[in-house]
Design brief:
Largest sheet: 2 strands, antiparallel
Shape: globular
Radius of gyration: 21 Å
Helix content: over 70%
Number of strands: 2
Strand order of the largest sheet: 1-2
Number of helices: 20
Order of helices and strands: HHHHHHHEEHHHHHHHHHHHHH
Distance between the termini: 48 Å
Structural class: mainly alpha
Strand content: under 5%
């Protein structure tokens, strides 16, 4: 019954192709009408903010990197901008970059990679907008630390408490529980494939390590991310670059294959084109999370540099670029240069990536990718906890008993995910991510006037050669911060 409900919701959100099925829903069998509702919403949202913010992801592409100067300084109240970036990347960089890219290729062909790039490009504008709101409407909790995210800007900016609660419930289902199960599933699957380690043992080990880190709260998670993310990201990129140069003669043909396949120019029918677009966008979103409403939680926890909410928009926009345009591309090149696209149908998830790397560098490839996925996915497991914990404040559960109950559920889901069937876990993750995204997209488009107003304030000061600084009242915003941070 639960599987039918999950499948029905995913059909409505993600659909089976490029157009809605106009047949009447069959409620009794829970077969609702299908249609890629969320794909349309994500594309529209990305294009909307690209237009409203005057293509900020292209105009200020270089500035996006320069704003990271001096970003390692934190305060007693917030984490540093660099820690916020690493924390968001901890959640982003995981199964989406390794297993997710493999799933996209297996279901949508090489063309799915092109559409992952496109959703990342326009998604950078979406990530910018939602992170600005996360920073603008943040609050202080009883421990004097910053909290924020979609539930906060929905409640304060739109005065829609019921919608804020709905988002928080979806986030608890997704980041608090299901997504960590997905990451644990990928870790245990990789270890079982490589070393025949029983999934139960791997799951227990993940729980023990995660518990040691999350007990330190957002600051402990940020410190862990600050060390782990640069190490694992740079290491993976180096390996991918070496493989690319080893196969440099095949790269031009591979690029053309991606482009031709993206537009169905190598396929017999339009169905393959629809599969490429759907799976590219779906896995691209799962990887970079732009529009899902997750990243604003990390953005809210930062002490901005410079002292303006818009600065965190640039920081998290950089995260979208690094996640999809760099790391996902690395995985795609590894798989396609190994000639594994046609073998993808008989192999799902991380197994395809492991096999591809083994073809390039021998048996050590399995060892490397197993270590990479364990580190990539584990950082996501830890960061997911922080996102869920941030929303305890919405339910007045930001206290010791509330955290204890949440932590127990979070660790329990890790154990379940480590032994669950992969399709079931992925389906629940898709549903949770989709529901979160629908609510968040509606909210940030609704709050476009505030986003445009505060960004105009930043852009104007930047164009005048001033260091952008913001104080409450510099421009008109919707609602009011409940604790007056700005």
């Amino acid at each position: 019954m639960i599987e039918k409900i999950v499948a029905a919701v995913n059909n409505v959100l993600w659909g089976d192709g490029l157009s809605f099925n106009q047949s009447v829903p069959v409620v009794g069998d829970i077969n609702f009408a299908t249609g890629p509702l969320l794909i349309y919403m994500l594309v529209f949202c990305g294009l909307w903010f690209t237009w409203k913010l005057r293509a900020v992801q292209i105009r200020h592409f270089g500035y996006m990197f320069s704003i990271m100067k001096g970003s390692t300084k934190s305060t007693t109240e917030g984490i540093s901008s660099f820690q916020a970036l690493c924390t968001s990347l901890s959640a982003r960089v995981g199964t989406g970059n390794l297993a997710g890219v493999a799933v996209a290729i297996s279901l949508g062909g090489a063309g799915a990679i092109f559409w992952m790039w496109m959703i990342a490009l326009i998604g950078m504008a979406t990530g910018f907008a939602e992170s600005v709101l996360g920073q603008l409407y943040k609050v202080k909790d009883d421990n004097g630390e910053f909290r924020g995210g979609p539930a906060y800007y929905i409640k304060q900016g739109l005065n829609k408490t019921w919608l804020a609660v709905a988002f928080s419930l979806c986030l608890f289902l997704g980041y608090g529980f299901v997504f960590s199960a997905v990451q644990a599933n990928t870790i245990t699957d990789a270890l079982e494939n490589a070393y025949a380690i029983p999934t139960l043992y791997s799951g227990i080990a993940i729980i023990a390590l995660a518990a040691m880190i999350v007990v330190g709260g957002l600051r402990g998670i940020a410190r862990f991310a600050e060390l782990a993310v640069p190490f694992m990201g740079v290491g993976y990129i180096i390996v991918a670059l070496v493989i690319t140069f080893m196969n440099i003669s095949a790269v031009p043909d591979m690029i053309m294959h991606i482009i031709y396949s993206a537009f169905g120019l190598e396929e017999a029918g339009a169905g393959a084109l629809g599969a490429a677009i759907k799976n590219g966008i779906q896995r691209g979103l799962y990887s970079n999370e732009a529009g899902s409403g997750s990243v604003p939680h990390a953005a809210a926890g930062a002490a901005p540099n410079p002292n303006h909410p818009v600065s965190q928009g640039y920081v998290q926009m950089l995260g979208v670029f690094f996640d999809t345009m760099i790391l996902c591309t690395c995985t795609a090149f590894i798989i396609l240069l190994a000639g594994q696209e046609n073998a993808a149908e008989g192999m799902g998830g991380i197994g395809l990536t492991q096999e591809a790397l083994s073809i390039h560098i021998g048996a050590s490839g399995t060892d490397f990718i197993s270590a990479a996925i364990c580190l990539f996915a584990f950082t996501s497991v830890v960061a997911n906890y922080a996102y869920g914990e941030s929303n305890l404040h919405i339910f007045k559960l930001d206290n010791k008993p509330g955290r204890l109950i949440y932590t127990a559920g979070y660790l329990g889901m890790i154990l379940w995910g480590s032994m669950a069937a992969l399709p079931t876990v992925w389906a629940m993750a898709d549903m949770a991510l989709g529901l979160m995204s629908v609510i968040n997209i509606i909210a940030i488009i609704w709050m476009t006037p505030t986003i445009v107003s505060i960004c105009r304030d930043y852009f104007t000061k930047l164009d005048r050669g001033e260091r952008p600084e913001y104080a409450d009242g510099d421009c008109e915003i919707q609602g009011k911060s409940e604790k007056g941070i700005w």
